[in-house]
Design a protein that fits this description.
The structure holds two protein chains of two kinds. Chain A contains five helices and five strands. By secondary structure, chain A is of the alpha/beta class. Chain A has a five-stranded parallel beta sheet, with helices on both faces. In chain A, α4 links the parallel β4 and β5. Chain A is globular, with a radius of gyration of 14 Å. Chain B is an alpha+beta fold. In chain B, β15 and β16 (412-421) form a beta hairpin. Chain B contains 23 helices and 28 strands. In chain B, the strands form six sheets. A six-stranded antiparallel beta sheet of chain B has the order 3-2-1-6-5-4, sandwiched between helices. Classes of the chains: A alpha/beta, B alpha+beta. The A-B interface holds A 16, 18-19, 22, 25, 71-72, 100-105, 122-127, 129 and B 636-637, 640-642, 644-649, 651-656, 677, 680-681, 683-684, 688, 691, 695.
Chain lengths: 150, 853
Amino acid sequence: MSRGDGAKVILLIEDNPDDIELTLRAFQRAKLANDIEVVQDGEEALDYLFARGPFEGRDPGLDPHLVLLDLKLPKIDGLEVLRQLRGDARTRTLPVVVLTSSQEERDVVESYRLGANSYVRKPVDFHEFTEATNQLGLYWLVLNVPPGAG
Amino acid sequence: MSTRAHRGGDPLSFLLELAHRMEMSQELEPALATLVEGLARLQGWDAAEAWVLESDGKTIVPGAVWVRDDELGAFVREDSPHAYLPDGGLVRDVWRTRTTAWHEDLLSLPERDFLRHGSAERHGIRSAALVPVVASERTLAVLALFSRDPRPEDPDAMRLARAAATEVAWLLERRIHARRVREADARFELVSGNARDIVSMHAPDGAYLWASPSALEILGYRPEELVGRMPPDLMHPEDRERAIGNLRELLAGNDRRLPRYRYRRKDGSYVWLESAARAVRDETTGEVTRLVASSRDVDESVRDRRALEESQRRFRRLFADNPLPMWVFDTETLAILEVNEAAVAAYGYERAAFLGMSVLDIRPAEDRPALRKMVSSERPALTRASGWRHVRADGTVLDVEIDSHATVFNGRAARLIVARDVSRRRQLERERERRSVQLAALADAAVRIHGAADLDSVLQRLADAARDVIGAHQAIASLPDGPTGMHTRYRVSLSERYAGYRDYDGHPDGTGIYRLVVERRHPLRMTQAELEAHPAYRAFGAEAGSHPPLRGWLAAPLLGTGGEALGVVQVSDRDEGDFTADDEAMLVQLAQLASVALEKTTLLGAVQEQARDLERRVGARTAELQALNRELEGFSYSVSHDLRTPLRAIDGFGSALLEDYADRLDAEGRHYLERMRGAAQHMGTLIDDLLTLSRVGRTSLEPRDLDLAELAREVAAELREAEPDREVALTVQEGLPARGDRTLLRLVLQNLIGNAWKFTSHTAGARIDVRAEQVEGAMTYTVSDNGAGFDMRYVEQLFRPFQRLHAAADFPGSGVGLANVQRIVQRHGGRVWAEGEVDVGAAFHFTLGEGTR
């Protein structure tokens, strides 16, 4: 993971190594020149986001511009992570896209209720996935103007 | 003969004697005998006959024959049935003409033959005088007087005989009349006033010489008090002159007058008398020697007085001997003035005590004010009243009905009371009233008892109702409870009288006398004495002292529909008197009511218990199902999330391999990778469809009114968008109203239209039609196409999951779609079915249930 030099940082919260690799590959294929930081459970994700625990004193330049959040996570599940993100002023406006295998409606509803900006179901077909990732990156990293940056 | 003719004494003595004897005789024959004998003796006849009417009323026969016996110097009655005169002309003529006849020489008569027969010839009869005895122009008899010597006609003798005969007839007629009256009204023994006529004899100047004893009654004078007095002196002044005139007439020979005069009685009151008077003359000189009179009172007031006296006699008789209690009380003082034996007997007061009481004393104290008020008010002469009560000497109270007559008793305004004891009747009336109240209470009890929710309240209401309906102070209803059969389930109902026993806890053990009722399944009714004498009566045993005392006992079994004894209801201490057969019938009725209620309650309890059990089981099962459902959800969630991840890896890395290492793989290697990726993607689809199927079964419906046509057009639009190159003639009927869950129904249309879309992919001129129509009252929706169709032999397999009728290469799919459709339609209460023909097309029809339509 390279150190940020002004490029926008994406935080991928995902525990499955296959999905991590495929996601990274998809971003790569989409030619999104972003730093992608990966954390593999809910606790680590929160520590990273709030720069605490192992991440205390990390480079503020690594504050993510977009969070890709899987729901099914070890230790603290994705919805709880989302709740805490939206409960803290520092991350309240941070774009969070729920990226998950689940197509359970209650997950979708709950995610939006807790303040997810988007909900993307990971398709089995990698090409579709790449396409979806492409759309995501384009919108949230390129077109979307975060409230604080306006 | 002539000397002998006067031997009998003077005519006056004769007439007096005659009148005197007539006082005693009321029969015709003895009267005639007296008359004939007297005349014969007085006028010197040798024999005599008295002809009378035979009992047939037609034949005239000699009723009596007398002959002078010279030896004895007296007339003797002939035993011989032979008469001197045969049935024939002489007597008949006199009978008919009612005139006297004299035959100086019988032998000269043309019919003298008759003398040859019988006594006339034997006794040498020569002359005869015939005298009719006439009263009110009716011949009662004919007297025949005979002489052995030829005897010339003697008008004086004839006149005397005629007068005597008439006198006799007159008296007789009255007596006969009186007898007839008596006979007609024997019950009241009316005595003819004639029996009390004054027969009197007067000197020619009118002075009383003799008077019959009846003078005392009529005039108030004893006969001897009248002797020497002049009748006019006894008369009303206004009548005197007339009386004196009449007396002159009488002396002049005009007898048989019937004047009326007012006589002053000794007490000063006047009485009208009608007198028949005759002058009696000396045979030889023709001078009036005596006057004979018969006077009877015709005075209304006297009659009234007599009637009054008679009525008083009768009244006394009626009063004293009357079987109904009677008394007379003074209207002013209310004192009882007279009382009859029946009252003494019925009320138990000594006569003396009775006579010392007032009518207030025979009333219960609480009735006295009403009585006082009533007697002080103006009342009709005769009243009848009920609702009064009398108190007997022993204190018992009688219900009475009273007749009250205004009367005068010993000069006091009084009322005669006739009292009838109607206690029995009143008691019957009260029983009747009680019974109608009971019936109403019974109806009420029926409602109450049947409203009871459990056994104990049925028993309590039964006990309360039994006490209420029967009118008793104690009631207990009990059931054997548990295997011992002891009556441990019971309810007691006690009146205020037994307030001290309210907490009585009897623990009936099923061995009391009520056991008989249960065993015999028959009611029992006893007085307290009968109860205590009964061998099965066990008193109260250990409960003596705590058990309320009984007073009479009535019990009825509670019988089930099978006739088995369920329990028993008992009552004791009736409000009034002993328990009756009606009470028993009532209690049996109540017991029957309660028995039905008990059985109903028992059944209801069982049903409720079952319902509770069922509810418990349903609850448990539901919880199980919910747990299972949660498990399934968790499973589905895992499947959804975890199962797809490796598939994505397979597809993703396969794809990476194809992209990054394409140059190192030959065509076959690339083909295998593509097949891997295809399989992974297909499995992804399978998993998605399976999850949908699972979700359709689990999610709850949110029915609403919607238009299926609109949904169908949305689905069609999506399909066209996905495959814009397809040319399909897809028509949707305008307005397909439906009620159901929008998401799920959309899924149905997605599947059906999607299938049609798919199965027409090889068909030129593809047509898809979405429509609906009413079939037998149900809206039936249809999606049809002209595509590949299917073989109807396999129609059953269509709706089973993962069943496919076509090769995946021709028409890809998971085979779960129609299973989803069926599940959704069924969850809406409808059904789905299909028609098809290979290479012609297919039509899928479905309905939605009423609740969702």
